[in-house]
From TrEMBL:
InterPro entries: NAD(P)-bd_dom_sf, Sc_DH/Rdtase_CS, SDR_fam. The keyword Protein biosynthesis does not apply. The keyword Thylakoid does not apply. Belongs to the short-chain dehydrogenases/reductases (SDR) family. This is NADP-dependent 3-hydroxy acid dehydrogenase YdfG. Gene3D superfamilies: NAD(P)-binding Rossmann-like Domain. It comes from the Bacteria. Keywords: NADP, Oxidoreductase. GO terms for molecular function: oxidoreductase activity. PANTHER family: DEHYDROGENASE_REDUCTASE SDR FAMILY PROTEIN 7-LIKE (PTHR43391:SF14), RETINOL DEHYDROGENASE-RELATED (PTHR43391).
C-alpha cells in the first residue's frame, strides 16, 4: 500500500496479545483500527490504552458466530466507510491427550481458530474488494509441526494455514493480497498465561506488529504468502 495514513484495519481479538500489538503498530503509522473482543468492556479498555480516540473503534464480536462478525463489519463500514486490512487473529488453545480432550474443547478450538477465520474473511469480502485490501491471518508454527497433546490445536492451525493459502489463490485476481503469519512462542495471555520477565526470550506482540507493517509496505508486486517466525534464541532444553 502506497500510503497507510487513515487506512482502516479490522483486527479480531484485538483487545490483548498479538492483536493489541498489531493495533498499536498500525496506529503509530496513522492508520485507524477497529478491535474486536467477545467482551465490549474489554474492547473499550483496550481502546483506552491505545489512545487516539478518533482512530480506535472498539467492537463486540464473537468470531465463532458469522452473524456477529457481519454485524461488527457493518458497524465499521457504517462509521468509517471502508476496510483496507483484515487481521484475522482471534484464537484459543485447548491442549491435552486425545484420551482427555473433550468434544466441547475440540469444537470450541475448531470453531474459534478455523471457522472464525473463515467467518472473518467471508464477512469482510465486499469492502476488501472495493479497497483492494490485504488479509493477514495469524496461524502458528503448530500449523505445520504437530506435537503430542496438540490434536485440536494442530488441526485448527494446519487448517488455517491451508485455508489461507487457498484463499490467497482465490482472491489475488481481485486485487486482494492474502498472507498468513505463523509465530512460534509469543509472550501473550494465550491459554490463560500471564506474560512475565521470564518471557523476554519469546516473540513479543509488537514484533508481530512490525511484521504486519512490513507486509503492508512491501511493493504490491510481491506477496510473502506464508511466513514462519520464531524466537531467535530460545532457552536450551
Amino acid at each position: 500500500m502506497k500510503s497507510l495514513e487513515n487506512k482502516v484495519a479490522f483486527i479480531t481479538g484485538g483487545s490483548k496479545g498479538i492483536g493489541f500489538g498489531v493495533a498499536k503498530s498500525l496506529l503509530d503509522l496513522g492508520m485507524r483500527v477497529a478491535i474486536t473482543s467477545r467482551s465490549m468492556e474489554n474492547a473499550k479498555n483496550a481502546a483506552a490504552k491505545l489512545g487516539s480516540k478518533d482512530k480506535v473503534m472498539p467492537l463486540e464480536a464473537d468470531v465463532r458466530d458469522y452473524e456477529s462478525q457481519q454485524k461488527a463489519v457493518d458497524s465499521l463500514i457504517q462509521e468509517w466507510g471502508q476496510m483496507d486490512v483484515l487481521i484475522a487473529n482471534a484464537g484459543i488453545g485447548h491442549f491435552g491427550n486425545i484420551d482427555e480432550l473433550s468434544v466441547k474443547q475440540w469444537q470450541e478450538t475448531l470453531d474459534t481458530n478455523l471457522s472464525g477465520v473463515f467467518y472473518s474473511i467471508k464477512s469482510s469480502l465486499e469492502p476488501l474488494k472495493k479497497s483492494k485490501g490485504y488479509v493477514i491471518t495469524i496461524s502458528s508454527l503448530a500449523g505445520t509441526n504437530f506435537f503430542s497433546g496438540g490434536a485440536a490445536y494442530n488441526a485448527s492451525k494446519f487448517g488455517v494455514t491451508g485455508f489461507t493459502q487457498a484463499v490467497m489463490l482465490d482472491l489475488r485476481d481481485k486485487g486482494i493480497k492474502v498472507s498468513t503469519i505463523m509465530p512460534g512462542s509469543v509472550a501473550t495471555y494465550f491459554n490463560d498465561h500471564t506474560p512475565t520477565e521470564e518471557d523476554a526470550w519469546k516473540i513479543q506482540p509488537q514484533d508481530i506488529g512490525e511484521l504486519v507493517v512490513d507486509l503492508l509496505k512491501i511493493n504490491p508486486r510481491t506477496l510473502p504468502s506464508k511466513i514462519e517466525v520464531r524466537p531467535s534464541q530460545p532457552p536450551k532444553k
